[in-house]
Design goal:
The protein is an all-alpha fold and 193 residues long. It has one domain. The chain is built from eight helices and no strands. The C terminus is likely disordered.
């Protein structure tokens, strides 16, 4: 191998190593900066959503299977031709959902604080960890149930036509796989148009 070729190879290797050096020194995790959070495991939005009782996508199983949510149905009330009786029923469902969701969300925040504090103080063991995470899981399930129940109650108030219109307005109209539920829609006290 010629001296020029060897020199060229060494220069290229050196340049490659030099450009890679900054990457070697950077070991930042995607978590960098999150250590200053009030509760490390929750983003500010997640914290606020729990405190305010927001849905956070917990009711997608209902929403995407023809069970409208009360908040969005009320937002679309005029376009759905909701009667005053339906609007009142949905306001009641939404209010109850919000009260329950805020209460459960507050409980979840308390448990997450306790978990975070245990790690921060380095005073957590496997037994306490398991107990806390099980309680967190139960409360997460309860929060999801609050939102899902509100969707079931909302669907019972609306007619089949209103639900189809809701799905269309929300952009779900083209992917109908699930059949309409048998009860509640257009009967059993649901207003007819």
């Amino acid at each position: 191998m010629s001296r020029l070729a060897l020199t060229t190879i060494l220069v290229l290797i050196s340049a490659g190593l030099a450009s890679a050096a900054p990457a070697w020194g950077q070991t930042h995790s995607s978590y960098a900066g999150e250590q200053s959070r009030a509760i490390k495991a929750l983003s500010p939005k997640e914290f606020d959503d729990l405190a305010q009782g927001r849905g956070m996508g917990l009711a997608k199983a209902a929403e995407l299977n023809r069970y409208p949510g009360p908040m969005h149905a009320l937002e679309l009330a005029d376009l759905l031709s909701l009667s005053s009786r339906q609007r009142q029923a949905l306001e009641s469902i939404k209010a109850r959902m919000n009260v329950e969701a805020k209460a459960v969300g507050g409980e979840l925040l308390g448990l997450e604080r306790e978990l975070d504090a245990g790690f921060a103080a380095r005073k957590i063991d496997a037994q306490r960890l398991k107990a806390l995470t099980e309680r967190i899981g139960v409360r997460q399930g309860a929060l999801r149930a609050v939102h899902l129940v509100a969707h079931i109650e909302t669907a019972a108030v609306m007619s089949a036509e209103q639900i189809a219109r809701y799905d269309h307005l929300r952009g779900y109209g083209g992917n109908r796989i699930a059949p309409m539920p048998e009860s509640g829609h257009g009967g059993h006290g649901a207003p007819k148009h």
